[in-house]
Amino acid sequence: MKKLAILILCLALLPILGCDRPKNGVYVMGVDIAPEDVTEFYYTVSTSTFPPHYQRYRFYKEDGAYKFFHETREGDHFPLTEADATITGTVTLSGDQWSDFLVLLVGGRVIARQEHLEAGDDGPWLYLYWTGDRGDVQEFSFVSPATQSDFESLCESLKGS
User: 33 and 41 in contact (C-beta within 8 Å)?
Assistant: First the structure.
């Protein structure tokens, strides 16, 4: 009985100690993160070129519904702020549209957030949140540039719907 209690205690401590994470610190979407556990995803690009440009896409669940938010900022100065938003909108997604989004994430890698020394990078910056995520492992990368391009195309089509 004492051994069983110790075993249960050890198993309960694994997530707290981070021992439930993949050994290389990389989570793979669809393997380590179940698609149905995804709660939120951000994609942001911000350029300081002339003219500067800012684009944010956000997929999320809210009150049992699937949502897509987009915001475009444009102007003749940098940095662009919320006051420079030229196009914004929120779309309620169908189950099929949400699935189309999730399919594009499968195979992508999620790692702990890192300080990027290439300050001024245009991005994109990608963050994935899921049920059970502890707030420190969300930096996402697509499985390939072609998949990222398909994601961007999906977002453009959803903006028009």
Answer: no
List the chain pLDDT tens, one digit each, 161 residues.
443 333 333 334 334 434 455 557 899 999 999 999 999 999 998 877 778 888 999 999 999 999 999 998 888 877 877 887 788 999 999 999 999 999 999 999 999 877 655 555 667 889 999 998 877 788 999 999 999 999 999 999 999 87
Bridge partners, 40 (sequence order): 60, 129
The domain ranges of the chain are 22-159
Contact 92, 109 (CB under 8 A): no
Sign of CA dihedral 151, 152, 153, 157: positive
**Structure tokens that stand for 7 in this block:** 């075993």
| Cβ-proximal residues to 127 (8 Å cutoff; 6+ apart), any chain | 40, 41, 42, 113, 138, 139, 140
Report residue 152: phi and psi, to 5°.
-60, -40
Q: Residue 120 is encoded by which pair of tokens?
A: 């001024």
Report the side by side order of strands in the sheet with 137-141.
27-28, 109-112, 137-141, 125-130, 38-47, 53-62, 65-74, 85-93
